[in-house]
Amino acid sequence: MTSRRNRYDFSRRALIQGSAAVGAGVLAGGLPRWSALAQGTPRPTFSNVELSVWVHDGEPAENETNQAIVDAFNAAYQGQIRANLQVISNTGNDYQNQVTSASVAGELPDVLDMDGPFVASYAYGQILRPLGDYFGQEELADFVPAIIEQGTWNGQLWALGAFSGSEGVLVNTELLAAAGITAPTSVDQAMDWATFTEAARTLTTDGVLGLDFHMDYGAGEWFTYGFTPLVWSNGGDILSPDATAAEGYMNGPATVEALTAVQQLFNDGIVSPSPSPTAFEEGQAAMQMIGGWVIPNIETTYPDLPWSIMPLPYFKEKVSPSGSWAWGITSGSENPDAAAELIRWFLDPQQGVAPIVEANRLAPSRQSAYPLVPFYNELPYSVYGEQIQKTARARPVTPGYPVVTARFAEAVANISLGGDVQESLDQAAQQVDEDFQRNNGYQPR
Amino acid sequence: MAAPTIARGERARAGAGGRRGSLRGQEDLAGWLFVLPATVLLGAFLVWPTVRSFWLSFTDYRVLAPDDARFIGVANYRDLLGDSNFWQAVRNTAYFAVVVVPVQTAAALGLALLLNQKIPLRSFFRTVFFSPVVLSMVVVAVLWSYFYNPSQGMFNEILENLGLPRQRFLTSDTQAMPAIMVMSVWQGVGFQMVIYLAGLQAIPQYLYEAAAVDGANAWQRFVGITIPQLRRTTFFIVVVSTILALKLFTQVFVMTKGGPFGSTRTIIYMLWEEGLNFRNTGYSSAMAVLFFLLVLAITLIQRRFVPQDED
Question: Which chain B residues are within 8 Å of A400, Cβ to Cβ?
Fold first, then answer.
């Protein structure tokens, strides 16, 4: 076990070639071999291994970068490993369905890209191999905790991602300045809920909403992603800590309290339950609580919009959401060692993380990658980066996540439209628990 | 193409004193070859999945853990009948069908009557009323979501300009389903209209001439000739629109996701949710079986209204 881990530590160090991550591991593993590797001595372990890799279809820049990363990997492992990247459609449930049918047909690739909330499903379906054999504790220590959390189910690590989404509050600096409000730019100075809602109230005028939650996305993943941090921040949760029950959590007092506070904003006309999709961009909303994915469009389509960003407000504890696509090795892979080698390359700060983050603008999942991505040290992205490193939490990790998110999002939608908070959440919790009972609590098989 | 040639060749030989039994055999073979492609395709993609759905509905089959599937008898059906979501979905679906089928049928007949007159630009209007049918329902639903937007949408702007109060449309649990109904009728009415137009043109002109000679006014001609003559067309339209209405899904999926407060959750939406989103295959198969029986029952009842001798 130890020797195996050390072996992988070398290769990573060799590939990073002196990046900030080089640490005590080198000494522990023994310098001579590492030096030899760094000088280009071919690795004896692999010989003409073919790897198949599935990646979700992203933005064009993201797809091109993934291919470039694989090309670089193939060049570095010439004659040893050859990875073939296949881009899989990600429209609607396409990706999930493809994985399901491929697993039934035994046609899964060696290396599988997975959306965070589905990792537990795949592990439960026994189509993944634990990553713990390939990634040592010291190596994992470089990853932000939320990304480890996202990939961990039933006590094992199944997936590791190079990046994570986050959520912040975009602010219209002109409107804020006119109202005499200063937006904090670091997590330390984040607004508490009272200050935040007071600001939103002040900013609400005839024709301008104080705050926008992008409710036009409709009851779906965004509602869960966007609103659970507020629940967490208030000391509540949407599932029990062991992720087996919703009763008492999704409808628990802290959850009800947080969402009652949110509903107040809708009741007072500060937030709209059915906003225009471009309310913030058009200057019809002074602030917008949203993930970083809207930024590229603001930069290209609304270059004149005066905007900045501030960290998420909080009730009691500062919390932010996290999660994104992550890599895993399939249980049917005949070359798991080579597959781990490729995943390590995708997760390598220099070779994998920096280029892909440059393309998709999501926050690096590794502390050591931040110095390599300068724009993550400046606004607006610095807020996401700081949150991911300091306050991020993963969404509940359970194979039953689809029903958890659907029912919670439905409750949030009803609450935004004036539905009784306790009743909406009671109903959601009951429906989640019914599904969990039908599935034996999604206990490991 | 080969089969008929062989059959003809056999017939020629049979005429020249060949064996009749062999001829029959060959013709049977040709017949089987003709139905083979359709039988295989329908069998593989219709009959087998249907049979399998029946079977799966008595198991706890889940896509995530297919090997764990067990036979659980009627447990899925028992759960389903106790599931308040399911009954809400049944009520919502029935509400949609009961309103949309008569309204859409009547509107289609009305449009067909108007566009069967010798009016200027007749083809133009026919095309206009038919054009929503060729649009993808997803596109239509997305566009209408914008129209229905309470704060920015076109419909509220119109209402406001007319001095009427603004409405919540898709964000109201009482208005969401009617809003979807209006859109669905608008989108689908052109199809029924075209079928009615064909039906109208098949009515012999002499019936109207004879009625006119007998002194029947326009209303009497409509009730006494047009309606009875269109009976089979109407039957077809009602059956088809009923089945389409019961299958309501796309509009809900795009516009409301079953909300607000479950007011637009339909049977098929719930079937999708349970089967494909939550991956409870057995449970959703039970739903599919009940839905199948429901549609079958409704169609059989509707058949009773058509005299058997006309079939």
Answer: 278
**Residues A149 and A42 reside in one and the same domain:** yes
All residues of chain A having their beta carbon less than 8 Å from the beta carbon of residue B85 are 431
Cα-trace Rg, chain A: 23
Cβ contact, residue pair A125, B283, below 8 Å: no
Copy the structure tokens of residue A260: 């009652």
Same domain, yes or no: A110 and A32: yes
Instruction: Report the CATH number that the domain containing residue A138 is assigned in CATH.
Output: 3.40.190.10
A&B contacts, CB < 8 Å: 69
Both A45 and A148 in one domain: the answer is yes
Which residues of chain B fall below pLDDT 50? Answer: 1-18, 310-311
Q: Tell me: do A192 and A313 sit in the same domain.
A: yes
Does the residue B72 lie in any domain?
no
- Supply the pLDDT for residue B19: 54
Residues A335 and A310 in one domain: no
User: What chain B residue is nearest to A425 in terms of C-alpha separation?
Assistant: B261
Is residue A424 situated within a structural domain?
A: yes
Residue B218 and residue B212: Cα distance in Å, rounded?
A: 9
Do A285 and A305 sit in the same domain of this protein? yes
Residue matched to tokens 């992008």 = A214
**Residue A427 falls inside a structural domain:** yes
Residue B38: give the domain boundaries. 2-54
Q: Letter for the amino acid at A219?
A: A
* Distance from the A414 Cα atom to the nearest Cα atom in chain B, whole angstroms: 6
Query: Domain tally for chain A?
Result: 2
Whole-angstrom distance, CA of residue B188 vs CA of residue B58: 36
Cα gap B302→A208, rounded to integer Å = 54
What is the DSSP track for B123-144?
HHHHHHHHHHHHS-HHHHHHHH
Q: Would you call the peptide bond into B260 cis, given omega within 30 degrees of 0 as the criterion?
A: yes
Supply the range of the domain harboring residue A190. 167-320+396-442
* Residues across chain B: 311
Phi, psi of A310 (to 5 degrees): -135, 160
CA atoms within 13 A on the CB side of A358: 17
Average pLDDT of adjacent 10-residue blocks, chain A of 445 residues: 37 37 35 37 71 95 96 96 95 86 91 96 94 92 96 96 96 96 96 97 95 93 96 97 95 98 97 92 96 91 96 97 97 95 96 96 96 93 96 96 95 96 97 92 86
HSE-up (13 A, CA, CB side) for residue A174 = 10
How confident is the model at residue B9, as a pLDDT? 45
Q: Kindly state whether residue B205 falls inside one of the protein's structural domains.
A: yes
Cα–Cα distance, A367 to A353 (Å, whole number): 11
Strand segments, DSSP code E, in A138-188 are: 152-153, 156-157, 163-164, 167-172
Contact B258, B273 (CB under 8 A): yes
Backbone angles phi, psi at B48, to 5 degrees: -60, -50
**Cβ neighbourhood burial of B44 (10 Å; 0-12, 13-18, 19+):** exposed
**Could you tell me which residues of chain B have a Cβ less than 8 Å from any Cβ in chain A?**
60, 62-66, 68, 79, 83, 85, 149-152, 168, 170-173, 256-262, 273, 276-280, 283
Task: Identify whether B304 is part of a domain.
Answer: yes
Q: What is the pLDDT of residues B190-233, one digit of tens each?
A: 999 999 999 999 999 999 999 999 999 999 999 999 999 999 89
Q: Identify whether residues A52 and A138 lie together within a single domain.
A: yes
First-last CA distance in chain A: 26
